[in-house]
Specification:
Elements: H1 2-21, H2 34-42, H3 50-58, H4 61-67, H5 70-73, H6 78-84, H7 89-99, E1 106-113, E2 116-123, H8 132-150, E3 158-161, H9 167-173, E4 178-179, E5 184-188, H10 189-192, H11 201-218, H12 224-236, H13 243-250, H14 254-263, H15 268-283, H16 291-297, H17 303-314, H18 318-334
Helix pairs in contact: 6-7, 12-13, 12-15, 13-14
InterPro entries: Homeodomain-like_sf (IPR009057), HTH_AraC (IPR018060)
Organism: Lactobacillus melliventris
Protein name: HTH araC/xylS-type domain-containing protein
């Protein structure tokens, strides 16, 4: 008999929060339907598209920023609560990546780039894949998480996606977001290594068994291709990213990994190319990196091989791509 009362309490709190944001409640009452409440309470994925379509249409950037403030929602979302209990940002991002699947069908790929950490968000469902609201909230929530944990105004190195961020969002971020074919968020590792004032080992020790239990009960099995991509993000920087390396990381044999990928209609080589393409497109927009450095970071021993692969992936040369990125950035900065 306790659960209905708890449901009602959280429903009321969510409604009050959304009303505070200024949402026209008569047009978005669907936000409190069972699927959304499942997201916050029962840790099930949202399987309908109207929520994201509605938010993309109705929510302005002020509301988007409020929805990205972890102080407004971490009580409802255990993975963020667990992340804030971490010792620092590196551990927080690791925990969030591990338990993000309790929030939705999301995979977070992290890539160590020297003194920086690059984060890529991949949606495994068709509903969020094309949602500006969903991606920007997920990206900005990570910035908010690090700021809340450290109690410092940490400014990311760079952030980008195919969506417009708006002046209000850029002001919050402290940098100009970039227009990109794919999404990325980059932090300095120094900032992520700063101790969290919100660290709480007692709370984490209390929550961890429950989070593990929820994941096991949900029996979530993301596509093996998504798991392979996520693993490759972590391994490429170290230079050991062959099929045997990924299989070892996942605790299975190379043959099993290849068979599972085949069952999804793909191959390890295709998944490697996807990750290398994503990284290459992101890294080439960093003007501090030359092409030799980028080719090495994405796992190529030969620059000429990288040139050929990039032209095959995108249809343009590395030089043309970098020029296009510069022109887009200049146009955005000029307000064109």
């Amino acid at each position: 008999m306790e659960e209905p009362a708890m449901n009602l309490k959280i429903t009321t709190e969510l409604k009050d929060f959304l009303l505070e944001l200024g949402y026209p409640f008569n047009s978005i009452s669907g936000l409190l339907d069972s699927s959304v409440m499942d997201k916050y309470l029962n840790a099930k994925w949202i399987k309908n598209s109207h929520v994201f379509e509605m938010l993309d249409k109705e929510a302005n950037d002020k509301q988007l920023l409020k929805c990205s403030d972890v102080g407004n929602f971490y009580q409802f979302v255990p993975p963020y609560f667990a992340a804030l209990s971490s010792k620092n940002g590196l551990q927080a991002i690791s925990r969030l990546a591990a338990y993000q699947q309790l929030i939705g069908p999301i995979e977070m790929g992290t890539f160590e780039e020297g003194e920086k950490l690059r984060i890529h968000i991949k949606y495994l469902d068709k509903y969020r894949k094309f949602s500006r609201f969903s991606l920007l909230v997920d990206q900005i929530s990570l910035v908010s998480l690090i700021r809340a944990g450290t109690n410092k105004c940490v400014i990311p190195v760079s952030i980008g996606s195919k969506y417009e961020y708006g002046s209000r969002i850029n002001k919050y971020l402290g940098i100009e977001a970039q227009n990109s074919l794919d999404n990325y968020l980059v932090f300095r590792k120094y900032d992520l290594e700063q101790s969290f004032v919100t660290k709480n080992d007692v709370m984490w020790n209390f929550m961890e068994p429950g989070l593990e239990k929820y994941i096991k009960e949900l029996n979530i099995n993301p596509p093996i291709s998504a798991v392979v991509q996520n693993t490759l993000f972590k391994l490429i920087a170290g230079g050991n990213f062959q099929v045997k390396d990924v299989a070892n990381k996942l605790g299975i044999s190379s043959r099993t990994l290849q068979r599972w990928l085949q069952n999804e209609g793909t191959t390890f080589k295709k998944q490697l190319s996807i990750v290398q393409k994503i990284l290459a497109q992101n890294l080439l927009q960093d003007r501090t990196l030359n092409t030799v450095e980028v080719s090495f970071l994405v796992g190529f021993n030969s620059v000429s091989s990288f040139y050929k692969a990039f032209k095959k992936w995108t249809g343009v040369t590395v030089k043309e791509y970098r020029l296009q990125a510069i022109l887009k950035t200049n146009s955005i900065n000029a307000g064109i």
